[in-house]
């Protein structure tokens, strides 16, 4: 395991980095995927015809804010060697606004929208910053498996949060509490676990980047804009990064639709109860952890492009299975296939961006990756929400249409040349 790390990196520090994936996964699992999304539709928005669309548009607004700020935050982090400081700020923001979601109940639609926009904005901004540490920790030939370690540990973190919330929900339902009683408490549980589990990251992870020479006569904001403009101007040198980011927009659109709407689909189409939905997502997190860990090694062995292509083929099979499912058996199989592909495709994408990033501009390039992922997080869920609204709640058609994004991503991926993209990154920094 030590041979997979950069010469001055210890396993303890790599574990501390991966613990951030463990910490922040509780937010996506509980708030975005398993509990608060279905609660928003059924309770906060009272199951109105536009409820699913309102949820997806709320997330779209937060992702649009991330798109506007992520490259600039990355440029600032690179110029001032400030990845860790910014990560602390975004973590505090996400924890605070997640806890505040406990105040969003029936009749508090606009408060719920405001808090979900803010909490998700801080979550997504931190996700980009922690990813930018990856190329500093792993050897080039092992970046896939190290990324897989973090992503698989992240799903374990999701399991811990989900297990804690599931235990509390089961206890609360046994005593007759309603969703309006127990869902707010799960928000407090999630925020507390996020804060506690992220402590090793801030105690042990090192900021290895060095401040870059500053531009004369410019303040911090002006310098961040100038560095971003330089990257955009030089974009023709990064043709493979550009193509992969476009690919990311498409295939991540499908993934984000599944993540955002899984619980809603399970309850609205398959008629799952809250406990059944939580159990389903609990099991799916296990398969996702296995997929991220195993595919990290497979990616380094067979190549980044074949590994990602394999997962996209799996996603397309999953969509057809979920669309065709009439009973729980086939739907459970589709959900677990989604788990395998989810961990693998997201971990592999992060590793490939790491290879395409010049060493002195890693935070900025991961900011561009974050921009692509957040654009996809608008595109996929809003497509699903619009289809379900226009068809008066046809969730089967909605998931089938959003599944077409995986096919588009696969076709674009085939034109990416990993070695050429890596040479471009190293040439820029020489």
Round the Cα radius of gyration to an integer and report it: 20 Å
Q: Please indicate the percent range of residues in DSSP E strands (runs of 2 or more).
A: under 5%
**Topology as a string of helices (H) and strands (E):** HHHHHHHHHHHHHHHHHH
Span between termini: 29 Å
The low-confidence runs, each spanning 5 or more residues with pLDDT under 50, are none
Reading off the top of the CATH hierarchy, the class is best stated as Mainly Alpha
User: Number of helical segments?
Assistant: 18
What percent of the residues sit in helical stretches (DSSP H or I)? over 70%
**Number of structurally distinct domains:** 1
Could you name the CATH homologous superfamily?
Answer: MFS general substrate transporter like domains
CATH topology title: Growth Hormone, Chain: A
Give the mean pLDDT. Answer: 87
Number of strands: 0
Q: Could you give a short account of the major beta sheet? A: none
Structural class: mainly alpha
Shape: globular
In CATH terms, what is the architecture?
Answer: Up-down Bundle
List the helices and strands and how they pair.
Layout: H1 11-34, H2 36-44, H3 51-80, H4 83-100, H5 109-131, H6 134-137, H7 143-174, H8 179-197, H9 199-204, H10 220-233, H11 239-268, H12 274-302, H13 304-324, H14 328-355, H15 362-390, H16 395-402, H17 404-413, H18 418-428
Helix pairs in contact: 1-7, 1-8, 1-11, 2-3, 3-5, 3-10, 3-15, 4-5, 4-8, 5-15, 7-8, 7-12, 7-14, 11-14, 11-15, 11-16, 11-17, 12-13, 12-14, 13-14, 13-16, 13-17, 15-16
């Amino acid at each position: 395991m030590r041979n997979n790390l950069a010469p001055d990196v210890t396993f303890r520090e790599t574990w501390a980095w991966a613990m951030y994936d463990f910490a922040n996964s509780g937010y996506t699992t509980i708030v975005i995927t398993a509990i608060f999304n279905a609660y928003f539709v059924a309770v906060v928005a009272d199951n109105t015809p536009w409820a699913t669309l309102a949820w997806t548009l709320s997330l779209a607004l937060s992702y649009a804010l991330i798109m506007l700020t992520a490259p600039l935050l990355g440029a600032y982090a690179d110029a001032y060697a400030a990845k860790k400081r910014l990560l602390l700020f975004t973590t505090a923001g996400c924890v605070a606004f997640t806890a505040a979601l406990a105040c969003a109940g029936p009749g508090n639609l606009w408060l719920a929208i405001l808090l979900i926009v803010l909490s998700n904005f801080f979550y997504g901004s931190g996700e980009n910053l922690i990813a930018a540490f990856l190329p500093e920790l792993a050897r080039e030939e092992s970046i896939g498996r190290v990324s897989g370690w973090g992503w698989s540990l992240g799903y374990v973190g999701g399991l811990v949060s989900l297990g804690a919330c599931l235990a509390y929900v089961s206890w609360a339902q046994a005593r007759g509490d309603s969703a309006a009683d127990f869902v707010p408490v799960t928000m407090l549980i999630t925020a507390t676990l996020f804060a506690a589990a992220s402590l090793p990251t801030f105690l042990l992870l090192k900021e290895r980047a060095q401040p870059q020479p500053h531009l004369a006569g410019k303040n911090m904001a002006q310098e961040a804009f100038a560095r971003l403009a330089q990257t955009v101007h030089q974009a023709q040198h990064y043709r493979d990064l550009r193509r992969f980011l476009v690919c990311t927009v498409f295939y991540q659109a499908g993934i984000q639709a599944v993540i955002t709407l899984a619980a809603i689909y399970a309850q609205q189409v398959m008629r799952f109860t809250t406990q059944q939905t939580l159990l389903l997502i609990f099991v799916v997190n296990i398969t996702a952890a296995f997929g991220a860990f195993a595919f990290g090694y497979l990616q380094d062995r067979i190549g980044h492009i074949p590994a990602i292509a394999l997962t996209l083929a799996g996603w397309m099979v999953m969509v057809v299975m979920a669309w065709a499912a009439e009973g729980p058996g086939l739907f459970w199989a589709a959900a677990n296939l989604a788990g395998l592909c989810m961990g693998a495709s997201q971990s592999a994408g992060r590793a490939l961006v790491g290879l395409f990033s010049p060493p002195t501009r890693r935070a900025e390039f991961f900011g561009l990756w974050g921009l692509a992922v957040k654009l996809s997080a608008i595109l996929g869920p809003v497509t699903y929400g619009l289809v379900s609204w226009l068809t008066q709640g046809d969730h089967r058609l909605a998931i089938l249409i959003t599944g077409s994004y995986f096919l588009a991503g696969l076709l674009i991926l085939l034109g990416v040349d990993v070695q050429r993209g890596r040479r471009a990154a190293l040439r820029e920094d020489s």
